[in-house]
Amino acid sequence: MLRRFFRRSRSAEAAPLDGGPPDLEEPSGPRPRQASAPFLLPSLASATRQYALDVEEGTLSRVHPRDLARLSMAMGADLWAWQRARLLTGQPPWRASPGLADGDERIRAAEQMLDDIPTWERAMMEVDADTRRAAIYGKPAPPPLAVPEQVMQRIEARRAAALEYATRNRRRQRSDQGDGSLQPQPEDAAQNPPAPPPQPL
Fold it and tell me: What top-level branch of life does the organism fall under (predicted)?
């Protein structure tokens, strides 16, 4: 189940942080840093360390698109999406340990991201809110969050369980309110029961 999470594709360019194809043209705004050459993939530990440094130093927006593509490919699409989810929710980037093999660290990352459902849900809400604000102010909408399929399945299962619990709770409340249940007796009637009928002479 976790094998899909730590595959590394070296034949196709991965998406940048926004989930779309890497834009290799010069972006507008602050001039990005010059791209590194040649196009070689770093290790997982090196890629996550460099990404974390760019986030912590506030320079991620100035990283050259080709270098972003390199980091994205080194991490893989699912881990790259999880890094964006953590960024959207104000959490520090995930870092691989340099002392462990890439394969072991990818398994560890896959386990953590599959269990990190609250982060995914909060990040999805942040993207939805940003999309609404963009529509109000006439700005480009942010790209959707590329939630991995197995994570989405867990989110849907969690929502279905919550809905089922709420439905059962409403039914229980309606049943307790008198649908076939005994009606409570007034307090006076309980304290002063009616006198027994007179016995015939």
Answer: Bacteria
